[in-house]
Amino acid sequence: MLKDTTIFSSFTTDDIPASKEFYEDILNLNVVVNEMGILEITVGNTQFVIYPKDDHAPAKFTVLNFWVDNIKNAVKELTDKGVKFEQYNDPIKTDEQGIFWGAPGPKIAWFKDNAGNILSLIDE
Predict the structure, then answer these.
(1) Is the pTM higher than 0.85?
(2) Domains of the chain (ranges plus CATH)?
């Protein structure tokens, strides 16, 4: 029944205008505010939504992953726009730019959106 349907992800924010600015201006994504005040964000042929929640609590896990061709360049581009990448030491260790170099596995860099939700860049 569900295997042929279209899916999308959703998560919350406590500030729709700030989230719209972050995803549109910083991440350069296509963002639309729908009639209910929910952000509809399209990446390629995939969509996710961000909805307002008064008692929003940021996710303590990664809610959204972006595949990139060159993680070092992607991290630099976002850092130049003011994005701060997370620093981890254990059980994984990131470098000074916030990149986990895999070995083996993908290279990953985690950062937070304006509402504190965790996002990542992944480069295989």
Answers:
(1) yes
(2) 9-123 (3.10.180.10)
